[in-house]
Each structure stands twice: as structure tokens, then as C-alpha cells.
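A quick aside before the break. I want you to see a complete sequence-to-structure record at least once, exactly as it would be stored in a machine-readable document. Don't worry about memorizing anything.
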Amino acid sequence: MTNYPLPNDFVPSDLDALDWDQLEPLYTALVERELRCAGCLQQLLLDRSELDAAASEAQANVYIRMTCHTDDEDAKNAFLHFVEHVEPKLKDVSFRLDRRIVQCPFVDDLDQERYGVYLRNLDADVKLFREENIPLQTDDTKLGQQYDEVCGAMTVEFDGEEYTMPQMGRFVQENDRSVRERAWSSIMERRYRDHEPIDGFFDRMVSIRDQVARNADHENYMEYAFAAMHRFDYTPADCQEFHRAAREICVPIHHELNRERARLLEVDVLRPWDLEVDVHGRAPLRPFDGADELVDRTSRLFHRMDGSLGEMFDTMRGGDSLDLESRKGKAPGGYQYNRDRRRVPFIFMNAAGLQRDLVTMVHEAGHAFHSILSRDEPLVAYRHAPIEFAEVASMSMELLAHPFLEEFYDEEAANRARRAHLEDLVRTLSWIAQIDAFQHWIYTHPEHTSEQRDIYWLELDALYGADVSWEGFEAQRAKAWHRQLHLFNVPFYYIEYGIAQLGALQLWMQYRQDRGQAIENYRRAMTLGGSRPLPELFEAAELTFDFGPGTMKRLMDEVQGELATLPA
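That is the input. The structure line, written in C-alpha cells, reads:
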């Protein structure tokens, strides 16, 4: 295996990329470098890549530290220093460098098969860049950090103990319905307590994003976001086709599953606190006790799935690549972050000993595998695949893990976990469509009020949601979107999960037919990183790039067929 970082004569090994005074002369040298031929331009791209990798890793490190310790003033200040004093200058010089590259007289002499995707993306970025947007985007990032801080500070007093929000998840799985109701109510009431500042953050974010779009000569932020996210291979209309597919195919299945749940629980009306409990009154699934056990069992699972995947997972043990357990002051959610200079991934999550934590673990490990498989790519931009395919890397691992869940459970419990995951997949596709449709409306109606936004959310919930009664919690239901951090921190990043899920399901179908070939298809496609257009990445894994009703129905038929074999 290659040792990282690779030697590069241009970027000093001791560069402090948090210090703009050290970064600036290097970027300026690239902008001003004399280019006499296509080979000179190619070398500039390689040198720029390693400098970008250093800056990217510096940003990664301060973000990781801040999310791990939102209550640490030094961590917060280091992150804000980068956001306020380094990132704006980095955006400016990056634009100048992008423009220099796309306008270089030798750019057409480069191998277009090799550099076509890179140059296409650069050209889009140059067309979008406006200097006046830099401070606006800085303000947007700072608002996202404030949202993380508010959410990270949320705790609940329950039965005399203090719990983080992820830790409270265990209580909504309890068999005693009164315990579930109290736990769920406590969670929702705690979230609702901060609804005014969270709405305030979001109002300002929408206003900022709309102004960013208009500054860049786009009619609205949705149009701008599609260009900024390099969505060359599908359109808002294609996303709306996904919304339709989810309404027509997934929502009815979701309703059917909930009717069966209500029957087995012997309740006339499902309530929100009835959705995670075992329908037969069995104790909640507890796949592990503590992060060390989670890591040990996950390692064994991947070694059984494929030896090379197991080895890749083991490279993250014993270093600084994992922060897994939930604690007060830790930001919500889970993520994998590429550290581009060392080319070593980092996994963050809030494990509380639940089945969903196991799913998160194998999901984020899939991202890490993608990072490791593509890290020999010289261009840092190509080490990052489009999100629509990056999520195939992670979501497919969730499904491919199914035959090996006995590493965590006995056979009965493993079947429970498999069934729960497939049922959740159906629900999630409906939720993704709802969130994405919500974003389409938000950013094409930027003058909306908070009240109008809540009304539209409830209209969508009636279309995409389950037949569950929120009686007595109407105000909380109108704010249920507050928990979706993507809406705040990464606008328009969510439909990718839906597109990718359809790819992951196809890979799962392959795996059920030929395990070795499916893993080979996975490895081959992930090694490409982001070096090919999105449809070609799907094709490399022998997947169809389509997310209309036809594809959705074929895949949901497979899911329903598998559910029919698993005891409820």
C-alpha cells in the first residue's frame, strides 16, 4: 500500500495550511506561473492539487474538532478563524486560478478523456463566481455552525438522568407504551423549545442563498445550486420525477407496513412513538455495548464480506480516524470526512448502542472505502466522487452487510435487523422525496414567511408521510423538518441519497446473484473516484442511472419479495 502523503516539491512538508500567510504565496505563484505548453499546464494542475489537498485537510481538521467538541471554545474559534480569515481568501485565489486554467491557450491540448470532467467543473465554477458572494457564503457557514451548536447542546432530563438526543433513541424502542410516549414527547418538546432561534437561522440562510443566486445572475437558488453542485446529468424536472415515483410506489408500501404495524401492536391509531418499537414486544435490538465492541464486530463483518474490505477497515483502528460514541457537546449526526493530504478518512457518529448505529457504522465505512480506493488518484478533485455516486459506496454496504449480521446477533435478531432496515429504506425514500420537494418550494419562493413554510411542510407531510396521528403535537409536527441538518448546512444535498439508494439496491440485487462479481464491480467503480461523468460511474458498477417510476417499482418489488421471507 502506498504511503501518504506523496512527495511534492511544490508544497512544503511543514506547511501550516491554517495560516494564510503561508498559503497565499504558494497560490499566487501558481496564478502567476508562466505556461509555455500543455505539459506546463498539466504540472500546474498537479501542484495545485496537492496545495488544495493541504488546504482541504486543514479545513477538515478544524471542522472535525469543532463537531466533536461544540462546547470547546478553542475548537469553535479555530473553525471560525478558518471560515472568516482563510476560506474567503482561498475562494478568491481559487477563482483566479480556475480562470487562469480554463482560459489558458493550451487547455484544449490536454487529454480531454482524462481532464474533461475536471475542466467542465472548473468552467462552471468560473461562471458562477462573484466576489460579492464570498462574505455572504461566510455568513451562511457561520449560521450553520450556530445551528450545530444549538442542536449539540440539546439534552433531555428523563427519569432523573441527563441524555443526549441520540441517547434518548433507546427509550422510544421500549415495549412499555407509556415510556415511549414520555420519551418521544420529551424529545419533541426539547427540540421545539429552540424552534425560534432555529427558524431565525434558517430565515437568514434562505435570504443569503437567494442573494448569492441573484448576484450570480440566476433566477433563484435552486437554479444556482444545480450549477454549483455540477448537476450536469439531471435536472429539477428529473428530481420531480423521483418525487412522483416515491409517491406512487413507496408511499403506498409505507402505508401498508404501518397498517400491519398497527394490527400487530393492537392499536387503533398509530402514534409517532409507535414506529420504532418491536411489534412482538421483544426487547430493542442492542447490537453492541460501547464503541470498542462496535469496531471489533464491524471488522469481523467486513472480513467475512471481503478480505480486502476488512483490511481497509482495520487501517482506521488505533489511530485518529474514529470518534463514535455520543456525548454532551458533540454535534448531531454522522459523517465521513476525507483528509486529503494524508489521504486518511475520518468517521464521526453518535453511537448509543442501537441498531441504527450499526447501520451508520457500515454506511460511513463505505464512504471510507471509497476514499481509500480512490486515493491513488493524483488530482484531489477526482478523489471526490459526485455525491449521487459517493452515497452508492455507503448505502450498498448497509445492504451487503445483511448476510453477516450474525456477527452482532443470533439468527432471530439478525432477521429482525434485516427487516427493520428494509422497512426503513422504504420510509427513507419517501422522506427524501419530501425533503427535496420542500427545498424546491423554499428556494423558488424565497419571500415566504416562517408560517407559510410550516403550512407547506404539512401539505407535503400529508402526501409523503405515514398515516400516523400527531394529535396534541401539531406545532411540533410543523417543525419536524428542523431535525434534517442537510436543510441547514448543505442545501439541496439530499436527493443524492435517493438517487444513490436506487444504485445501492441494484448492487444488492447483483450481490444476491454473484457476490464476487458484485464486490468486483464495487471496487472497480469506486477506484474511479470522480474522474468520470455520473452516468459512467454507475455504468462502471453495472448499474442503471435512472430514478423514474419504472426503476423504482422494479427495486421495490425486490424489497417486498425479501420482506415476504422475513418474519414480521
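Two observations worth writing down. The beta strands are 155-158, 161-164, 322-325, 335-339, 344-351. The mean pLDDT is 95. We'll return to this after the break.
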